[in-house]
């Protein structure tokens, strides 16, 4: 038996070495598409109290399943809903019927390579004259007539703004008079189709909060140095703009009027997940959709990798973005913040059984409409039942 044990050990280590050495050689020789930087994150907040895990999002219902794909952001005019989808369409949903009213890009659509020409409508808002303002990741800011489908370009991604083009236009928020549009450019290096590279690289590359004046047609850069700025929301008093900094799991605040105009500070730090879009709640606070959760207690992949750039390099030398995405646990989380940034309540769907890849929570008439950047449906949650 001693001889057999030795033979087994020798055989095992020989096989392990025969696999490990070539694999190590390949990983050294292969190029890595990203140059990740170490990021210092605080220990995730404990999921206790109002953040206690629950299954409240499973009370939602799926609407128009398999009739639209990737409804990232949602807006409404009365009871008519509008959204943009992964195939470049701007959709109108009235009396349960889905209608394509416009598209900014052109086909073919359907693959990762198609996105830059197909277009990808992300943030969508309603202006004072009931026109739609749309942020297309590849084409820029547009105004869309919801009745005729006519599109008007406001800011093109081809336009140089302080010497740089826009690479990843993401979300927008509009003043009540329609004069100012505040929007995010998530990266000066990566496009939307490479958002996972942007998260994993962790760099603060480019301009991130911008202001467009619809009267003067001027664009100003307001904030730089953020890591994956994402959703934006004006305060009810329109004195500041909140900017979600996805990679850092926090929300920054930039003052656009008043005594602190031009200043910035932290609104919410060390959130329990990666914030995507942010929208007003009827209570005067804010709904924040989390595209991934930082478990505590438990294992958080983002936190584990944050200060280990060498592991990130190994991963992306060997695996595609789509493969890596499939390893990220599906866990949907929506939190409601108070007007001062404290947590009021949270809705969870562990494993994303009913609601997967949630990107936005839009409140209308007692319901929370949940957008998703990957799922083929919109979910609706009755707030009176949770």
From TrEMBL:
Record-level Gene Ontology MF annotations: arylesterase activity
Membrane topology category: Single-pass membrane protein
Residues in Strictosidine synthase conserved region domain copies: 170-258
Main location: membrane
Gene Ontology CC terms: endomembrane system; membrane
Keywords for this protein: Glycoprotein, Membrane, Transmembrane, Transmembrane helix
One Pfam family linked to the record: Str_synth
Compartments, as annotated in UniProt: Membrane
PANTHER family named among the record's database cross-references: ADIPOCYTE PLASMA MEMBRANE-ASSOCIATED PROTEIN, STRICTOSIDINE SYNTHASE-RELATED
Record family assignment: Belongs to the strictosidine synthase family.
Annotated protein name in UniProt: Adipocyte plasma membrane-associated protein
Taxonomic lineage from the root: Eukaryota, Metazoa, Chordata, Craniata, Vertebrata
């Amino acid at each position: 038996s001693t001889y057999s044990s030795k033979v087994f050990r020798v055989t095992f280590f020989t096989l392990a070495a025969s696999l490990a050495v070539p694999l190590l050689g390949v990983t050294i020789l292969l190029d890595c598409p990203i140059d990740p930087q170490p990021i210092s994150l605080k220990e995730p907040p404990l999921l206790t109290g109002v953040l206690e895990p629950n299954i409240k999002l499973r009370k939602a219902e799926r609407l128009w399943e398999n009739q639209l794909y990737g409804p990232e952001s949602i807006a409404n005019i009365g009871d008519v809903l509008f959204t943009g989808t992964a195939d470049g369409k701007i959709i109108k949903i009235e009396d349960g019927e889905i209608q394509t009213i416009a598209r900014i890009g052109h086909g073919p659509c359907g693959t990762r390579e198609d996105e830059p020409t197909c277009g990808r409508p992300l943030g969508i808002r309603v202006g004072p004259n009931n026109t739609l303002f749309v942020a297309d990741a590849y084409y820029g800011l547009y105004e869309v007539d919801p009745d005729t489908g006519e599109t008007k370009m406001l800011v093109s991604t081809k336009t140089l703004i302080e010497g740089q083009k826009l690479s990843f236009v993401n979300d927008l928020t509009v003043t009540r008079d329609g004069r100012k549009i505040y929007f995010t450019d998530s990266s000066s290096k990566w496009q939307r189709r490479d958002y996972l590279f942007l998260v994993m690289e962790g760099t603060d590359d480019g301009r991130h909060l911008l202001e467009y004046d619809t009267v003067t047609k001027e664009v100003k850069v307001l904030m730089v140095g953020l890591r994956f700025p994402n959703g934006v929301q004006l305060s009810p008093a329109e004195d500041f703009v909140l900017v979600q900094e996805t990679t850092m799991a926090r929300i920054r605040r930039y003052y656009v009027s008043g005594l602190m105009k031009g200043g910035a500070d932290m609104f919410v730090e060390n959130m329990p997940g990666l914030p995507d879009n942010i929208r007003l709640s009827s209570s005067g606070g804010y709904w924040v959709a989390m595209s991934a959760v930082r478990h505590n207690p438990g294992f958080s992949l983002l936190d584990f990798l944050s200060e280990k750039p060498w592991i990130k390099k190994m991963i992306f030398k060997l695996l595609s973005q789509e493969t890596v995405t499939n390893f990220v646990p599906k866990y949907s989380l929506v939190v409601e913040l108070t007007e001062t940034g404290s947590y009021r309540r949270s809705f969870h769907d562990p494993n994303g059984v009913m609601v997967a890849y949630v990107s936005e929570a839009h409140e209308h008439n007692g319901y929370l409409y949940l957008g998703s950047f990957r799922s083929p449906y919109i979910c609706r949650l009755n707030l009176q039942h949770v």
